[in-house]
Design a protein that fits this description.
Length: 352
Amino acid sequence: MNEQDRDGWRKPSENAHPDDPRRESGRSRPSKSKRSRTSSAGRGRLLLLLLCLFVLGAVLWKQRSAPGLAAGSNSGQTAGILQRLNPACADPFPVAGATTANPNWRTGASARSSTQFINQTPVDRMVDLMSGEQVLINVALPANQTSAIAVPLGTYAWRLRHGAAWCAATGKFVREQRTIITNGLDIVASSTLTVHIEPDAQHPSGFSLRTSDQPVVSGTPVVAAPETARTLAGGGLFIPKAADGHYYLDGMIEDQRVQFMVDTGATGVAIPAELARQLGYYQGPEVTSNTANGQAVGYAIRVKRLTFGPFAAEDVRVAALPALPVPLLGMSMLQTLEIRQTAAGMELRPAR
């Protein structure tokens, strides 16, 4: 076999008959008419695509150029979104004093203490008095001014806010910065509290806090018994009988002055729920207490210190009862004492 014959064996002739065994399967070329039909279909799809793009462009151009309702609505929605994301507010800052109050703010509380916030910095600030994460009331502190409000007794969480500008619609600052104060704000009846906000270049926030207390002459009113309890020799205590037949005794629960009613029929110590909230205790496990008036349901708390006469106790379990008129001193505190009742009154002495 010569070289020409070998080449012919390797590569079939283009003119070979379709039934020629030398023609390779799967490599047949499309006919000229078939290629023409394929090219025509591709050009048709391309023209259709270009036509759709032209129509879409015309519709978009019409919406953009015509001051129609759709265009105005879209632009208004876009402006609203941008406004919420970055409000361009420059409203006048509120005057010094309380501004917005939460419905849970105790507006009717009779026991209050005057509290002053002195802003000695050149920055407008807002104080949030809180119960946990819930904001109870906002206090506006304009730059270099003082805000004084009467605050119901209790312990409050609080924080400071400031920013680039004030926005009245949202009640927030633009690019607002918040400073949470770790120490709670204790409002007691025995003193007025003043909070000083002072410039401090050494602190990253640019300011520092300082508090001061001023004692007051009168605190929470206490109903006095006809005769004052007196100390007995040997460390005991005599409690005179009141006109209603009960025994009343002055004492302290933490830093709050109270008047107990001695109740030997009560299981433990119980106080009105309002007094518990004044002390900063808002909730606890449900508890049922036996009192002279029957059973009462409230919540249990633990107070740091309780005193009456010469006696004192630490970490005392107390029941906070919503319908209780006066604090009760029950057997959990009295069982370690010797109790002797006479026609004139009651004697409490240390157990021997």
